[in-house]
Amino acid sequence: MDRDIAKLSDRDFDVVVIGGGIFGACAAWDACLRGYSVALIEKDDFCSGVSANSFKVVHGGIRYIQHGDIIRLRASCRERSALLRVAPHLVKPLPILIPTYGHGKSGKAFLGAGMYLYDLLTLDRNRNTRDPSRAIPWSRLLGRDEVLGEFPGLQQQGLTGGAIFNDGQIYNPTRLVLSFVKSAMDRGACIANYVEATDILTADGAAVGVRAHDRINDESFNIRAKVVLNASGPWAERLLEHADVVDHGPEITYSRDTCFLVNRRFSSDCAIAIQGQTHDPDALLSRPARHLFLVPWRNYTLVGVWHGVRTAEPDRITVEVGEIQAYLDEINWACPSLGLTLADVTMWNAGLVPFGENDPDQKHLSYGKRSHIIDHSVSDGMDNLVTLIGIRYTMARGDAEKAMDLVTSKLGRDQISPPTDIEPVSGGDIDDFDGLLRRVIDTHGKHCDRAVLTALVHNYGTRYEDVLRYDEAGPDASTVMGDTTTLKAEVHYALENEMVSRLTDLVFRRTDLATGGHPGDDVLRECAQIMAREKDWSEDRINHEILEVNARFPHF
Predict the structure, then answer these.
(1) What tens digit of pLDDT does each residue of 245-303 get?
(2) Which residues pair with 209 in a beta bridge?
(3) How many whole angstroms separate alpha carbon 535 and alpha carbon 306?
(4) Between 488-497 and 521-535, two packed helices, what is the crossing angle to 10 degrees?
(5) 275 in Cβ contact with 334 (< 8 Å)
(6) Average pLDDT of the chain?
(7) Helix ranges, 14-92 (H)
(8) Residues 458/431, Cβ–Cβ less than 8 Å
(9) Interior angle at CA 420, CA 418 and CA 424, nearest 5
(10) How far does Cα 169 stand from its chain's mean position?
(11) 128 falls in which pLDDT band (50, 70, 90)?
(12) Per-residue pLDDT at 67
């Protein structure tokens, strides 16, 4: 992955994609498979915004049964299956247990009927899935004792049992985005991070490219393209307003979706859904309250998700200590045996996504329904400009395909969508992930810990050998960084091959070093010093980079 700015300005492209989150990355990959010349720019690092703050669950659409929305249900299931196929190293099935109390809408019969209906509506969910371990199994009902065997701390009064369904889980959202980015670059896309689109170039009532600013070298230049796809999420409207070339319609309402990690891993491999203190006003049939989820992820438990209407700039999104405490209070109210405290929280995640129409003080919130795909030639007479504001990580591939269909029509090309639902992304050409992992452990287990090798294969898939044989890492390549599962070879590999400019890029988005919690001061300083040797940083720059990393962690 070469950050070659000159390539962005020395040619005309079919399409320039603005935004290096999951939607922009999927769009660039789709465009490359159509045979288009593609540029993609991201004002910060790849997957450093909303996509990085994902709850890491790939939703298959079961909740849309409550809304009677079969179209959304089927679309979500289709996208979950696609990600399980194209990135089996980074996406796997996630069993989710819902306990039942009493009868009626809270009872097992009502819940089980909904789950079995969902299974019937998604009978084709495992079609073309190569790896059996990535197939979504049937839902099943559990007795009271089975539920308590999985989660003995549940409130037992009135407990009648439960049911388990499966969704998908992302091992590392940032590496998944990077896999799409790498795949596009392998097919010829010109891509760069830390390049901001500052304006949209126009001529004769049509977009003809973007004015861009290289934030690393402080230089501005033009990128010429036949079509501009603005896929910068909650930043998309700000670019349109700044460009002053479009009337992009009513302002979109955004929710700050929030979750957090706690440094406990419960004994069960299942996630559990517990009823919170709000309900879904749009549901035709619903349980008494919306669910909050406790989800096992690596050695942590993810807790969430909370939604709240926000009008703040996307660069200023944060979560205050009082808010985290309020979320903990709700979780502890729903499941008193947990006894979670602020001391348990290692990381919070929050990002802006399109939301439904809600009053400012409304408690029971209406969720957003679909992503926004805007053809500006229709909305305001500006041709060759398309905006895609995605609503959920799960839907990125499919919504990017729809946006690229629109781009294709503007290019006057034949409308043939590429098979991005079955074409593996970088590292994802795997028929049997568990078998691959066993072979890697058998081969390298004498030199590397099993947990280290497991993380390596998850993050790199079939390209794990690119890291293990990385000669430039030197004789200490197999050394593990501190108490983490990250090899020093991964640090050197990322610096040389994965367009790393800042310490935050390295520890949050190229490696596992800081994705779940602070890796330790010694590890951060060692990483910063390795980068300093590569990039000729001063001691002041080293300290500044470390401060930027530390600022991202909760301080209670």
Answers:
(1) 656 556 788 888 999 999 988 889 999 998 876 555 555 455 556 789 999 999 999 99
(2) 201, 224
(3) 40
(4) 40
(5) yes
(6) 91
(7) 22-33, 70-86
(8) no
(9) 130
(10) 10
(11) very high
(12) 83
Global pTM exceeds 0.70: yes
Question: What pLDDT was estimated at residue 226?
Answer: 98
> What pLDDT is recorded for position 251?
73
Provide the token pair at 386.
């398309």
Whether 144 contacts 438, CB under 8 Å: no
> How far does the chain reach from its first CA to its final CA, in angstroms?
38
CA distances from 485 to 16, 109, 446, 475, 546 (A): 37, 43, 16, 18, 20
Residue 502 contacts residue 496 (beta carbons within 8 Å) = no
Lowest mean pLDDT among 3-7, 100-104, 171-175: 100-104
Residue 485: CB partners within 8 Å, gap ≥ 6? 449, 451, 452, 454, 455, 456, 512
Q: Which two tokens stand for residue 309?
A: 């209407």
Q: Output the six-digit token pair for 48.
A: 């450093």
Other residues' Cβ atoms within 10 Å of the Cβ of residue 253: 16
| Two tokens, residue 410 | 């503007």
Among 16, 551, 405, CA closest to 232: 16
Residue 362, pLDDT score = 52
Helix (H, G, I), strand (E, B) or coil at 100: strand
If DSSP states are collapsed to H, E and C, what string results for 242-288?
HHCCCCCCCCCCEEEEEEEEECCCCCCCCEEEEECCCCCCCCCCCCC
Whether a cis peptide bond, with omega within 30° of 0, leads into 305 is yes
All domains in the chain, ordered by first residue = 6-50+174-252+370-411 (3.50.50.60), 82-170+253-354 (3.30.9.10), 433-550 (1.10.8)
Give one word for 280, left, alpha or beta, with left for phi > 0 and alpha for psi -120 to 50: beta
> Residue 183: helix, strand or coil by DSSP?
helix
For 456-476, how does the pLDDT look when each residue is reduced to its tens digit (9 = 90+)?
Answer: 999 999 999 999 887 555 556
Q: Kindly state the helix (H) or strand (E) to which residue 325 belongs, with its residue range.
A: helix 321-334
Written as six digits, the tokens of 183 are 């795949």
User: For residue 358, what are the CA distances in angstroms to 135, 354, 544?
Assistant: 37, 12, 41
By the 8 A CB rule, do 73 and 125 touch? no
Separation CA 185–CA 183 (nearest Å): 5
The predicted model gives 135-158 an average pLDDT of 94
pLDDT of residue 57: 96
Mean pLDDT for 334-362 is 83
CA dihedral sign, ordered 498, 502, 505, 506: positive
Position with higher pLDDT, 69 vs 474: 69
Q: Crossing angle of helices 450-460/433-444, nearest 10°?
A: 130
Within 8 A by CB and 6+ apart from 370, the residues are 72, 391
Task: Give one word for 218, left, alpha or beta, with left for phi > 0 and alpha for psi -120 to 50.
Answer: left
DSSP 289: S
pLDDT for position 290: 76
